[in-house]
Every structure is written in C-alpha cells, then in structure tokens.
Design goal:
heterodimer, A: 12 helices, B: 9 strands
Chain lengths: 294, 247
C-alpha cells in the first residue's frame, strides 16, 4: 500500500496535516468515557470482535452518504449511524433465533456490509476515502463530530447508569434473564446500538478501526487492574485517557495521524498492565513466590 | 386447587418431541419429583414449565402465575464464570422480580441477600469473584438466588449435583419447608431415596408419562421397569405423530 499523502482529507475535505489539539482532546475524552466502559462489557461477554465487525458495518452507510452528498459531515454521520444500527439490529435478531452463534451472525452482516461499502466507494473512484474511513483523518473532528462525540458519550454513560443491572445480568446469566421474563434481548440490542454510536462518533477523526482499538485495548488492559465491572470500567477510562493524551501529544509533535498513534500508546499500556497489574498480571504469578496462609 | 396444569403438552426441538402428550396437574403447595432415565425429557419439561421453551403442541396453564412468580434453576445454568461479577451480585439478581430494571436495592434487600447466602453456607462470600469459587459453591449461590426470588413456583433441575453431603442435607431441609409455605416445587432428581424423603408426588417420565401420583405408588417396581424399556431418543425416521394426525 502506498503511504498516504498529506494534505486534504478525501473523505472530509478538511486539511489534515495539522489537527486542532483542543478538538482532538475533546473527541478523545468523549471516546474514553463512552467507549471504554462498553469495551469492558463486550470483553466480559466474549464479544471482543463485535466492535471490529460493527466498525466495518458502518462503511456502506458512510460510503453511500459520501457518494450522494460528498464530504458533508452531517450526511456522513447519519449514513454511518444508519448502517451501524442496521447491522447491529439484524445481527442481534439473527443471533436470537438460535440458528447461528452470535459471532457468525455478525460475520455474515459485517462482511456483506464491507463488500457493499467497497463497491459503493469504487463507484466514486476515490480509494483514499476508504482509507480515511478505516484509519481516520485528523482534520475530521469538526463541530459536527464533536457534537456527535458528546452525544455518544453522554448517552452511553446515562444508559449504562440506568440499565447497568440489566446489562450485567444479561451478560453473566442470559438463561436467568429469559426465564425471569426480563427484556434481555432489548438490552442486548441497546448495547450493540451504543457500540455503533460510539464508533460513529470516533470514526471520522480516528478511523473506524482505530476507534475500535481505543475502545477494546484499554478495556482488555483494565482486566489486569480490577475484578468487578465498575473497577474495570473506571480503569479502562483512565487507561484510554492516558493513551489518548500521550498519543495526541506524540502525533502533534511528529506530525502523524493521531488515531494509530493513540492506539499504539494503548497497546503499550496494555503490555504494562499485563506485566504489573495486580489482578492476574504476569508478575503476580512468578514461580517461586510464597503462597498465602489461607 | 392447582398451581400448574398441563394440557396435552408436547415439548421438543425442531419438531422432534422430547416429551409428548402430557396431561396432569402440579398441585398448589405440593413437592413433585420428576424422575426418569437419561433422555426421558425431564429437563425439557422444566424448561417448558419455566416458559423458556415454547410447546410444540398443547399448553401449560400456570393459573395466572407471572414470570416473576417462578424461580427456575436449570441443570446447565449458563452462568459465565469469567464475567466480572461477585457472588453477592449474582444472588442479588434474584431481587429483579420485585425491583425491576430501575428499582434501588435497599438495606432490607441487602439483608435478604446476606441471609440467603448464610442459609446455603456462603456467609462471607459476598465479595468473591465468580471465577474464584468452586462449582459446588457457585451452585449454592444459585440456590441462594432462588431463595431471594421468594417465588410461588420453584423449578429445580438436579439441584444437588456437585454438592457435598452436608450442604445437600442443609438444602433439603430448606426445600422441605417450601410446600408448607404454599410454594409449589417441581424437582428433577435421580436419587430415589431422596425423592421419597422430599417429594409427596412423583412424575415418572420416559418421553411420555409412565406414572404420576403419590410417590410410593408412582415409583412401584412395574412402573420403573416400564420406564426403563421405553425409547431414550427419537427415531431419525419418525413419521408425523398419529395422535396429532388424528386431531
């Protein structure tokens, strides 16, 4: 693959050589507070790759919007959101029928969506736009992007607070949820839609794939710092903030795309967590350590 | 007076009956054992009673009982032990019927949870993570959740498997109190001595009803022999059920 030329983003039409640091910080903070707690739930439900699947799922919507309206931020956001919600709803419904495992349901829809997105973008004869969608364009976080990010983070935190008991029960013991007549299916769908919303909030600035990275890697790191969900969610937010802050600073200093650098910073923090984290970190289980009394 | 009545009930998967054409009544405040060989449809029947499996034909009349009035402890509980949750939180889920999605958990609820955990010998285990306890301890926590649910119909599928003798004795003492409290209990059990000790009634199944009534009569030698002879599994070449055909 050719290195991407710097200058004007093919997708957004905005200059991406120098991104506005305050806007990038605000967007990254919103993603940390909204995305990281969702990432912890996804990992706990053994659905780590669903975020990845949904990130591809938003592609045809964004591509169609780009083909119809050009680099209009509102159209791109609405297109991506529509496609993300559609993939989330169809995959969840198919999985609920019990005919296919959940990951297989997502695979069917996201691969179809990805292919559709490539076909649509191919008609616009603009391959750079596809790269922008997947990996981000630093100048993509304009006023519309910030508003979507703020809505995504606020909606996520409010709905998590309201339905946390339901999300935990549906994740840990779905059989109990069904037998108790509780709306497990609806909660599951709500969770998937929140994931799609956060991905759409982050994708224009940090890229769809990198946004998943910023959602999942801090969440995976958090498992080494706390046992319960609340502790893990708090740790994931903190790690995401640290990764985003250091990544943005490095990206600004080096003049590189921030999404990938932020994700790499999260990877470094994951390695440190896996090594020194008090909850099953590698150093906790060194051979020769004395055991406890009881 | 009946708690649950079965009307020509057939339950199964993909049109294949696991148990078929059941008629009968689980009496209010009665403890009934469901007994039968492997593959006789016992767990499927409990799923159907719980509302977790829709009938292929016939129906279950629960006499107005709602889902929150039913506590169901399945054999394959499906709890993900890697999930970041404590035993106390798992037991607290039993309060859902009363508190719903948004209701706050108050001091009285916390006392109820603590009391239930003590009753199953798990006092002090409230903050233990799911992946840090044994299979038997998790089963006891699920039993505590049944206690917390305070349900009128209690469905237990082999609840004492994986439990040690002392815990089993303690839990049987709890179960024996339930009929006196007006609760209807249906339990899948294999130990016939335990069935005779705990349950006044027994349903002997072999993919259809072999006997249903007072335990001593239902577990008569002839009935047990008949249950053993009946087929364990469906036939791959089975035709459409003649009873359904006639109807």
């Amino acid at each position: 693959m050719q290195p991407r030329s710097r200058g004007v983003s093919a997708l957004t039409g905005l200059a991406d050589a120098h991104f506005a640091m305050p806007a990038a910080i605000a967007g990254a903070l919103a993603l940390a507070f909204g995305g990281a707690p969702l990432g912890v739930l996804l990992i706990a439900r053994r659905m780590s790759l669903v975020g990845d699947a949904l990130s591809h799922g938003i592609l045809p919507g964004a591509a169609l919007a780009y083909l119809v309206a050009g680099p209009d931020p509102v159209a791109l956001t609405l297109g991506a959101l529509g496609a993300g919600f559609l993939v989330a709803i169809l995959s969840s419904l198919l999985a609920r029928t019990g005919r296919l495992p959940e990951d297989a349901s997502f695979a069917v829809f996201y691969l179809s969506a990805l292919a559709l997105g490539v076909v649509i973008l191919g008609r616009s004869a603009n391959a750079e736009a596809l790269l922008d969608l997947l990996f981000g364009a630093a100048g993509g976080l304009d006023a519309t992007g910030l508003i979507v990010s703020a809505i995504a983070a606020s909606a996520t935190l409010i709905l998590l607070a309201l339905f946390l008991r339901g999300f935990l029960a549906e994740s840990a013991d779905p059989v109990f949820m069904r037998a108790s007549g509780l709306p497990g299916g609806l909660l599951h769908l709500l969770l998937m839609m929140l994931v799609a919303l956060n991905l759409v909030a982050g994708f224009r600035a940090f890229g769809a794939l990198m946004t998943v990275g910023l959602m999942m890697i801090p969440a995976a790191s958090a498992r080494f710092w706390a046992r319960g969900y609340t502790g893990q969610a708090a740790a994931a937010v903190l790690i995401s903030v640290l990764a985003s802050g250091s990544g943005l600073w490095l990206a600004q200093a080096l003049g590189w795309e921030p999404g990938a650098i932020m994700t790499l910073c999260a990877s470094v923090l994951f390695a440190a967590s896996a090594l020194i984290g008090p909850n099953k970190g590698l150093l906790q289980n060194l051979p020769g350590r004395t055991h406890l009394e009881g | 007076m009946s708690a649950v009545r079965l009307h020509d009930l057939t339950l199964g998967y993909e049109r294949r009956p696991a148990v078929h054409h059941l008629d009968g009544t689980f009496g209010l405040g009665c403890a009934t054992a469901v007994v039968g060989p492997n593959g006789s449809g016992k767990s499927t029947l409990l799923k159907g009673l719980a509302g977790a499996l829709a009938p292929l034909s016939g129906r279950v009349d629960r006499s107005g009982l709602k889902a929150r009035d039913i506590a169901y402890l399945p054999q394959d509980h499906g709890v993900d032990r890697t999930f970041p949750m404590t035993l106390g939180e798992l037991v607290t889920l039993g309060l859902w019927g009363r508190r719903g999605l948004f209701g706050a958990i108050n001091a009285s609820d916390r006392h109820t949870v603590e009391h239930a955990m003590q009753a199953v010998g798990l006092g002090g285990f409230e903050d233990r993570a799911l992946d840090s306890v044994s299979g038997g301890q998790l089963q006891r926590a699920l039993f505590a959740r049944v206690l917390v649910q305070d349900a009128r119909l209690i469905l237990l599928d082999e609840p004492f498997t994986a439990l040690d003798a002392r815990t089993t004795t303690d839990l049987i003492a709890l179960v024996k109190r339930w009929p006196g409290e007006g609760r209807t209990v249906v339990m899948v059990l294999h130990d016939l001595d335990m069935v005779r000790e705990v349950c006044s009634d027994t349903l002997l199944l072999a993919r259809e009803k072999v006997a249903w009534g007072p335990t001593e009569a239902a577990l008569g030698g002839e009935n047990l022999l008949k249950a053993r002879r009946l087929s364990e599994a469906w036939s791959q070449e089975a035709a459409v059920c003649s009873r359904d055909h006639a109807a």
